[in-house]
Amino acid sequence: MSAVEVIRAAALERVPHGFLGRRGGVSRGLHGGLNVGTGSADDAAAIAENRRRATEAVLPGGQLVTVYQVHSAECVTARAPFDHALRPHADALVTDRPGLALGVL
Protein backbone atom coordinates (compact mmCIF):
# COMPACT_ATOMS: atom_id res chain seq x y z
CA MET A 1 0.00 0.00 0.00
CA SER A 2 1.47 3.35 -0.98
CA ALA A 3 1.16 6.43 1.18
CA VAL A 4 -1.22 9.24 0.31
CA GLU A 5 0.65 11.91 -1.63
CA VAL A 6 0.36 15.25 0.19
CA ILE A 7 1.84 18.46 -1.21
CA ARG A 8 2.25 21.20 1.37
CA ALA A 9 2.87 24.93 0.97
CA ALA A 10 5.65 26.48 3.08
CA ALA A 11 3.57 29.64 3.55
CA LEU A 12 0.93 27.55 5.36
CA GLU A 13 3.32 25.52 7.51
CA ARG A 14 1.54 26.47 10.75
CA VAL A 15 -1.86 25.35 9.44
CA PRO A 16 -2.69 21.68 8.82
CA HIS A 17 -3.25 21.50 5.06
CA GLY A 18 -2.49 19.53 1.97
CA PHE A 19 -3.05 19.31 -1.74
CA LEU A 20 -3.59 15.66 -2.62
CA GLY A 21 -2.66 13.67 -5.66
CA ARG A 22 -3.99 10.27 -6.73
CA ARG A 23 -1.43 8.11 -4.90
CA GLY A 24 -2.38 6.11 -1.86
CA GLY A 25 -6.00 5.29 -2.66
CA VAL A 26 -7.90 2.06 -3.10
CA SER A 27 -10.03 2.81 -6.17
CA ARG A 28 -9.45 0.69 -9.27
CA GLY A 29 -10.00 1.07 -12.99
CA LEU A 30 -11.20 4.39 -14.37
CA HIS A 31 -11.22 5.92 -10.87
CA GLY A 32 -7.90 4.32 -9.88
CA GLY A 33 -6.13 5.82 -6.89
CA LEU A 34 -7.34 8.30 -4.32
CA ASN A 35 -10.78 9.09 -5.73
CA VAL A 36 -12.67 11.06 -3.06
CA GLY A 37 -15.46 12.26 -5.34
CA THR A 38 -18.82 11.10 -4.05
CA GLY A 39 -20.43 12.14 -7.32
CA SER A 40 -18.41 9.63 -9.33
CA ALA A 41 -19.55 6.18 -10.37
CA ASP A 42 -16.81 4.63 -8.21
CA ASP A 43 -17.54 2.03 -5.53
CA ALA A 44 -18.99 3.81 -2.45
CA ALA A 45 -16.85 1.75 -0.06
CA ALA A 46 -13.69 2.70 -1.97
CA ILE A 47 -14.65 6.39 -1.91
CA ALA A 48 -15.29 6.21 1.84
CA GLU A 49 -11.90 4.57 2.45
CA ASN A 50 -10.17 7.11 0.21
CA ARG A 51 -11.81 9.99 2.08
CA ARG A 52 -10.71 8.46 5.39
CA ARG A 53 -7.13 8.13 4.13
CA ALA A 54 -7.10 11.67 2.75
CA THR A 55 -8.35 13.10 6.04
CA GLU A 56 -5.82 11.14 8.09
CA ALA A 57 -2.99 12.31 5.81
CA VAL A 58 -3.87 15.97 6.35
CA LEU A 59 -5.47 16.15 9.81
CA PRO A 60 -5.17 12.88 11.75
CA GLY A 61 -8.30 12.30 13.81
CA GLY A 62 -10.15 15.06 11.96
CA GLN A 63 -13.54 15.03 10.29
CA LEU A 64 -13.75 15.83 6.58
CA VAL A 65 -16.19 18.55 5.49
CA THR A 66 -16.89 19.07 1.79
CA VAL A 67 -19.34 21.02 -0.32
CA TYR A 68 -21.02 20.30 -3.62
CA GLN A 69 -18.67 22.23 -5.90
CA VAL A 70 -20.43 24.46 -8.43
CA HIS A 71 -17.69 26.86 -9.63
CA SER A 72 -19.12 29.99 -8.02
CA ALA A 73 -18.07 32.73 -5.64
CA GLU A 74 -20.00 31.09 -2.77
CA CYS A 75 -18.26 30.44 0.54
CA VAL A 76 -19.87 28.70 3.52
CA THR A 77 -18.98 28.46 7.19
CA ALA A 78 -18.57 24.92 8.49
CA ARG A 79 -19.30 24.28 12.14
CA ALA A 80 -19.73 20.51 11.76
CA PRO A 81 -19.73 18.01 8.88
CA PHE A 82 -22.70 18.43 6.54
CA ASP A 83 -25.13 15.63 5.83
CA HIS A 84 -23.96 14.36 2.45
CA ALA A 85 -27.36 14.83 0.81
CA LEU A 86 -27.63 18.37 2.19
CA ARG A 87 -24.14 19.64 1.35
CA PRO A 88 -24.27 23.32 0.42
CA HIS A 89 -23.48 24.32 -3.15
CA ALA A 90 -20.30 26.39 -2.88
CA ASP A 91 -16.63 26.52 -3.75
CA ALA A 92 -14.99 27.60 -0.52
CA LEU A 93 -15.23 26.78 3.17
CA VAL A 94 -14.09 28.46 6.35
CA THR A 95 -14.22 27.28 9.95
CA ASP A 96 -13.11 28.22 13.42
CA ARG A 97 -13.66 24.66 14.71
CA PRO A 98 -10.62 22.55 15.53
CA GLY A 99 -10.72 19.07 14.07
CA LEU A 100 -12.55 19.92 10.83
CA ALA A 101 -10.63 19.19 7.65
CA LEU A 102 -12.11 21.35 4.89
CA GLY A 103 -12.03 19.88 1.41
CA VAL A 104 -12.88 21.17 -2.04
CA LEU A 105 -12.55 18.79 -4.96
**Main β-sheet, spatial strand arrangement:** 1-2
The total of beta strands comes to: 8
The helix-strand sequence is EEHEEEEEE
SS class: alpha/beta
The radius of gyration is 14 Å
Give the tally of structural domains: 2
Mean pLDDT over the residues: 94
Largest sheet: 2 strands, antiparallel
Shape: globular
What does this structure look like?
This protein is of the alpha/beta class and 105 residues long. It has two domains: 1-60, no CATH class; 62-105, no CATH class. The chain is built from one helix and eight strands. A two-stranded antiparallel sheet has the order 1-2. The chain has a two-stranded parallel sheet with strand order 3-8. The longest helix has 15 residues, at 44-58.
Keywords:
105 residues; alpha/beta; 2 domains; two-stranded antiparallel sheet; two-stranded parallel ribbon; 1 helix; 8 strands; 14% helix; globular
Task: Please provide a brief summary of the model.
14% of the residues lie in helices and 21% in strands. It folds into two domains: 60 residues, no CATH class; 44 residues, no CATH class. The chain has one helix and eight strands, in the order E-E-H-E-E-E-E-E-E.
Task: List strands and helices in order, with pairings.
Elements: E1 6-7, E2 19-20, H1 44-58, E3 63-66, E4 68-69, E5 75-77, E6 89-90, E7 92-94, E8 100-103
Parallel strand pairs: 3-8, 4-6, 5-7
Antiparallel strand pairs: 1-2
